């Protein structure tokens, strides 16, 4: 990737991600991003598929989506004519920056949206893609309200 | 034994955008070995530096998770489908 990748998402979907994080606070929320690659440089999120955080043992600072959840998200995508293009989760009272744990467990190609939820209020939202060498992430620039041509 | 390996979406960029590949393999381990030999860039996303399958990589033979079978020694036969399905994890 030579240019910064862009992630297009509607205002309503961006707000719903923040709202999900507020609802589950102080625990992490998670869900799938359903959409399409609009061009070489831009990916569009068209729908969300909210999920249950399966890390019941440590939900304040960890989230997990099982293989079965992934298959459910892919099925929902197929029904809607969309791909699973990534995942969102919240960082309760932590910055919207990928942690080392995030990096160790990440898959390439997916967009990872992180929303920081401070004292129950959704704040900054960022998006990231794991680099090919797994050593670091690249920022994905979120453009709220931008859509691909129909 | 001719088997089909299904490639999950996030790894297709490293496999020429293919969603599957066919190999002759007697075990799951052999099949994954062929896969990562043909598409070398896949390897680091499936295996640790020590050569173990990463914890968030789930492998099925037909619909059975290999963790409940013989793991990478699980035998495969003609027509079997080996699927690689992600788990997703992270946190602050």
Distance between the termini of chain B: 44 Å
Mind telling me the CATH class of chain A?
Alpha Beta
Structural class of chain B: alpha+beta
Outline of chain B, from the CA principal axes? globular
CATH superfamily of chain B: Beta-grasp domain
Biggest sheet: strand arrangement of chain A: 1-3-2-5-6-7-8
What do you see in this structure?
Chain A has 150 residues and is of the alpha/beta class. Chain A has one domain: Cytidine Deaminase, domain 2 (3-Layer(aba) Sandwich). Chain A is built from three helices and eight strands; from the N terminus they run E-H-E-E-E-H-E-H-E-E-E. In chain A, strands 1-3-2-5-6-7-8 form a seven-stranded mixed β-barrel. With 92 residues, chain B is α+β, with helices and mostly antiparallel strands. Chain B has one domain: Ubiquitin-like (UB roll) (Roll). Chain B contains two helices and six strands. Chain B has a five-stranded mixed sheet, covered by helices on one side. The longest helix of chain B is centred in the middle third of the chain and has 11 residues. The radius of gyration of chain B is 12 Å and the shape is globular. Chain B starts with a strand and ends with a strand. The model of chain B has no long low-confidence stretch (mean pLDDT 96). The interface between A and B is medium-sized, with 36 and 22 residues. Strand 4 of chain A pairs antiparallel with strand 6 of chain B, so a sheet runs across the interface.
Topology of helices and strands:
The complex is a heterodimer of chains A (150) and B (92).
Chain A: E1 5-9, H1 11-24, E2 30-37, E3 42-51, E4 63-65, H2 67-80, E5 83-92, H3 100-105, E6 111-118, E7 121-130, E8 137-144
Parallel strand pairs in A: 1-3, 1-8, 5-6
Antiparallel strand pairs in A: 2-3, 2-5, 6-7, 7-8
Chain B: E1 2-6, E2 20-24, H1 28-38, H2 43-46, E3 57-61, E4 64-65, E5 81-86, E6 88-90
Parallel strand pairs in B: 1-5
Antiparallel strand pairs in B: 1-2, 3-4, 3-5
């Amino acid at each position: 990737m030579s240019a910064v990748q862009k992630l297009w998402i509607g205002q309503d979907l961006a707000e719903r991600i923040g709202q999900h994080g507020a609802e589950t606070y102080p625990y992490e929320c998670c869900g799938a991003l359903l959409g399409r690659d609009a061009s070489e440089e831009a990916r569009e999120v068209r729908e969300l598929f909210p999920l249950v955080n399966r890390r019941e043992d440590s939900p304040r600072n960890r989230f997990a989506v099982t293989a079965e959840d992934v298959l459910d998200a892919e099925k929902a995508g197929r029904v809607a004519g969309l791909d699973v293009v990534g995942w969102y989760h919240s960082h309760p009272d932590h910055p919207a920056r990928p942690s080392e744990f995030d990096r160790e467990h990440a898959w390439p190609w997916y967009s990872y949206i992180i929303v920081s939820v401070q004292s129950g209020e959704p704040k900054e939202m960022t998006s990231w893609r794991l680099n090919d060498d797994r050593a670091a992430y690249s920022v994905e620039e979120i453009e709220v309200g931008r859509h691909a041509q129909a | 034994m001719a088997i089909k390996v299904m490639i999950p979406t996030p790894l297709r960029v490293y496999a020429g955008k293919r969603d599957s590949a066919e190999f002759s393999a007697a075990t799951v381990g052999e099949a994954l070995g062929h896969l990562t030999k043909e598409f070398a860039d896949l390897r680091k996303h499936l295996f640790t530096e020590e050569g173990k399958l990463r914890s968030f990589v789930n492998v099925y033979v037909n619909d059975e998770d290999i963790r409940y079978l013989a793991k990478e020694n699980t035998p495969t036969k003609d027509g079997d489908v080996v699927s690689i399905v992600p788990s997703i994890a992270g946190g602050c």
